[in-house]
Design goal:
The complex is a heterodimer of chains A (about 130) and B (about 80). Chain A is mainly alpha-helical and about 130 residues long. In chain A, about 80% of the residues lie in helices and about 0% in strands. Chain A folds into two domains: about 1-65; about 65-130, no CATH class. In chain A, helix 1 (about 1-25) packs antiparallel against helix 2. Chain A is flat, with a radius of gyration of 17 Å. Chain B is built from six helices and two strands; from the N terminus they run E-H-H-H-H-H-E-H. In chain B, helix 2 (about 15-25) packs across helix 3. Chain B is mainly alpha-helical and about 80 residues long. Helix content of chain B is about 60%, strand content about 5%. A two-stranded antiparallel sheet of chain B has the order 1-2. Chain B starts with a strand and ends with a helix. Chain B has one domain: lambda repressor-like DNA-binding domains (434 Repressor (Amino-terminal Domain), Orthogonal Bundle). Classes of the chains: A mainly alpha (about 130), B mainly alpha (about 80).
Chain lengths: ~130, ~80
């Protein structure tokens, strides 16, 4: 239950940060910043989804986490890490061919890792983890 | 690996949630097991089999096994 509360608090802080960023006018009219904002929303949405499903389980008297949910996280993490290596290789490759600054590239790489993790998690959920 | 959880659960007349609560996992885990999308740990397989009062090899079957009862035949039962 504590972890669920922490997830909601961090999600709320991330949303508040995004709202402040938007209000300051950093996002308006800038495609790159808008994509970054969308990715933050995606990651926060994922965290809220996980938190809500844990709360529902708690209400039904189920465990918040069990061997399957831990296994899915482990599998998705390892898969995402493996794919991220290629993602960073791609970022290094395009860094020479673009005018983007280093901090933008690093930000894009980190955001890409978050997206890759969410996709891996969905993939493991969809196809299962029979080979383990 | 295949399993007979769905069949045994139907025979016992219990829901996925009830089985999940009795063996100490989430309902989703039972759904994954019944769909054959997850191979359980030895501990969970043991708990599920014990819940149905059967040996593990009669609940969980490897793909190259013909079906339940082979273990009993092999043991000369």
């Amino acid at each position: 239950m504590k972890r669920t509360v922490v997830m909601f608090v961090i999600s709320a802080l991330a949303l508040a940060g995004l709202a402040l960023w938007t209000l300051k006018g950093h996002i308006a009219g800038n495609a790159g910043e808008m994509i970054m904002g969308a990715i933050v929303l995606l990651v926060v949405g994922f965290a809220v989804f996980l938190g809500v499903s844990r709360l529902r389980s708690h209400r039904r008297g189920e465990l918040g986490e069990d061997e399957l949910s831990k296994g899915v996280m482990r599998r998705a993490s390892s898969l995402a890490y493996y794919i991220s290596i290629y993602l960073w290789l791609f970022v290094m490759y395009i860094s020479d061919k673009t005018t983007l600054e280093a901090h933008s590239l690093v930000g894009a790489g980190i955001a890409g890792m978050a997206v890759v993790f969410v996709l891996c998690w969905l993939g493991v959920k969809l196809f299962g983890m029979k080979s383990e | 690996m295949n399993n007979r959880i769905k069949e045994l659960r139907a025979k016992a007349g219990i829901s996925q949630l009830e089985l999940a609560q009795r063996v100490g996992v989430r309902r989703e885990t039972i759904v994954f097991l019944e769909k054959g999308k997850y191979n359980p740990s030895l501990r969970l397989a043991h708990d599920v089999a014990r819940h149905f009062g059967l040996p593990i090899e009669e609940v969980f079957l490897f793909d190259d096994e013909p079906g339940p009862g082979r273990a009993g035949e092999a043991a000369g039962v």
